[in-house]
Amino acid sequence: YGVGGDSTLAIANAFTQVSGLSFLIFNLLCAPCFAAMGAIKREMNNWKWTAFAIGYQTAFAYVISFIVYQLGNMFIGQGNVVGIILAFAFILALLYLVIRPNFKKMFKNSKKA
Fold first, then answer.
1. Hey, how many other C-beta atoms are within 10 angstroms of the C-beta on 60?
2. Could you tell me if 41 and 67 are in contact, meaning their C-beta atoms sit under 8 angstroms apart?
3. Could you write out the three-class secondary structure of the chain?
4. Per the confidence metrics, is the pTM higher than 0.70?
5. Residue 9 and residue 108: Cα distance in Å, rounded?
6. Which pLDDT score, from 0 to 100, does residue 63 have?
Protein backbone atom coordinates (compact mmCIF):
# COMPACT_ATOMS: atom_id res chain seq x y z
CA TYR A 1 0.00 0.00 0.00
CA GLY A 2 3.01 2.23 -0.13
CA VAL A 3 4.98 3.96 2.56
CA GLY A 4 4.24 7.51 1.53
CA GLY A 5 0.90 9.21 1.97
CA ASP A 6 -2.01 7.99 4.03
CA SER A 7 -1.77 4.21 4.03
CA THR A 8 -4.78 3.84 6.33
CA LEU A 9 -6.95 5.42 3.66
CA ALA A 10 -5.63 2.98 1.05
CA ILE A 11 -6.36 0.02 3.33
CA ALA A 12 -9.82 1.38 4.13
CA ASN A 13 -10.58 1.59 0.42
CA ALA A 14 -9.36 -1.99 -0.16
CA PHE A 15 -11.58 -3.63 2.47
CA THR A 16 -15.27 -3.51 3.25
CA GLN A 17 -16.36 -4.10 6.83
CA VAL A 18 -17.25 -7.71 6.07
CA SER A 19 -14.06 -8.49 4.16
CA GLY A 20 -11.99 -6.79 6.86
CA LEU A 21 -13.61 -8.88 9.58
CA SER A 22 -13.11 -12.03 7.51
CA PHE A 23 -9.46 -11.11 6.95
CA LEU A 24 -8.91 -10.54 10.67
CA ILE A 25 -10.52 -13.87 11.55
CA PHE A 26 -8.33 -15.68 9.03
CA ASN A 27 -5.21 -14.10 10.50
CA LEU A 28 -6.25 -15.00 14.03
CA LEU A 29 -6.87 -18.66 13.19
CA CYS A 30 -4.26 -19.44 10.52
CA ALA A 31 -0.93 -21.17 11.04
CA PRO A 32 1.28 -19.50 13.66
CA CYS A 33 4.69 -17.91 13.29
CA PHE A 34 7.81 -19.87 12.35
CA ALA A 35 8.88 -20.24 15.98
CA ALA A 36 5.60 -21.94 16.82
CA MET A 37 5.93 -24.12 13.73
CA GLY A 38 9.35 -25.18 14.99
CA ALA A 39 7.81 -26.04 18.36
CA ILE A 40 5.11 -28.09 16.60
CA LYS A 41 7.84 -29.93 14.67
CA ARG A 42 9.79 -30.59 17.86
CA GLU A 43 6.72 -31.89 19.72
CA MET A 44 5.44 -34.07 16.86
CA ASN A 45 8.95 -35.19 15.87
CA ASN A 46 7.80 -35.69 12.27
CA TRP A 47 7.62 -33.29 9.32
CA LYS A 48 4.52 -35.03 7.92
CA TRP A 49 2.50 -34.38 11.07
CA THR A 50 3.86 -30.86 11.24
CA ALA A 51 2.76 -30.19 7.66
CA PHE A 52 -0.64 -31.73 8.42
CA ALA A 53 -1.07 -29.53 11.53
CA ILE A 54 -0.15 -26.36 9.64
CA GLY A 55 -2.36 -27.31 6.69
CA TYR A 56 -5.25 -28.12 9.01
CA GLN A 57 -4.95 -24.79 10.82
CA THR A 58 -4.83 -22.89 7.53
CA ALA A 59 -7.79 -24.79 6.05
CA PHE A 60 -9.82 -24.30 9.25
CA ALA A 61 -9.05 -20.57 9.23
CA TYR A 62 -10.09 -20.31 5.59
CA VAL A 63 -13.38 -22.17 6.17
CA ILE A 64 -14.31 -20.01 9.16
CA SER A 65 -13.41 -16.76 7.40
CA PHE A 66 -15.33 -17.94 4.30
CA ILE A 67 -18.41 -18.57 6.45
CA VAL A 68 -18.13 -15.15 8.08
CA TYR A 69 -17.66 -13.44 4.72
CA GLN A 70 -20.58 -15.18 3.03
CA LEU A 71 -23.00 -14.77 5.93
CA GLY A 72 -21.91 -11.17 6.45
CA ASN A 73 -22.58 -10.38 2.81
CA MET A 74 -25.91 -12.18 3.06
CA PHE A 75 -26.98 -9.98 5.97
CA ILE A 76 -26.10 -6.77 4.13
CA GLY A 77 -27.84 -7.95 0.97
CA GLN A 78 -24.82 -8.62 -1.22
CA GLY A 79 -24.60 -12.40 -0.86
CA ASN A 80 -24.14 -14.86 -3.67
CA VAL A 81 -26.31 -17.98 -3.64
CA VAL A 82 -23.58 -20.54 -4.28
CA GLY A 83 -21.35 -19.06 -1.58
CA ILE A 84 -24.17 -19.01 0.96
CA ILE A 85 -25.10 -22.63 0.21
CA LEU A 86 -21.45 -23.64 0.58
CA ALA A 87 -21.17 -21.68 3.84
CA PHE A 88 -24.19 -23.50 5.29
CA ALA A 89 -22.71 -26.82 4.12
CA PHE A 90 -19.50 -25.96 5.98
CA ILE A 91 -21.51 -25.05 9.08
CA LEU A 92 -23.35 -28.37 8.96
CA ALA A 93 -20.06 -30.25 8.50
CA LEU A 94 -18.51 -28.46 11.49
CA LEU A 95 -21.57 -29.15 13.63
CA TYR A 96 -21.43 -32.80 12.62
CA LEU A 97 -17.77 -33.00 13.65
CA VAL A 98 -18.59 -31.44 17.03
CA ILE A 99 -21.71 -33.48 17.81
CA ARG A 100 -20.74 -36.86 16.35
CA PRO A 101 -18.51 -38.12 19.22
CA ASN A 102 -21.32 -37.58 21.73
CA PHE A 103 -23.67 -39.75 19.68
CA LYS A 104 -21.08 -42.53 19.59
CA LYS A 105 -20.73 -42.46 23.38
CA MET A 106 -24.51 -42.35 23.84
CA PHE A 107 -25.11 -45.40 21.64
CA LYS A 108 -22.12 -47.24 23.08
CA ASN A 109 -23.47 -46.85 26.63
CA SER A 110 -27.00 -47.89 25.63
CA LYS A 111 -25.76 -51.18 24.11
CA LYS A 112 -24.15 -52.19 27.40
CA ALA A 113 -27.37 -51.80 29.37
1. 15
2. no
3. CCCCCCHHHHHHHHCCHHHHHHHHHHHHHCCCCHHHHHHHHHHHCCHHHHHHHHHHHHHHHHHHHHHHHHHHHHHCCCCCHHHHHHHHHHHHHHHHHHHHHHHHHHHHHHHHC
4. yes
5. 58
6. 96
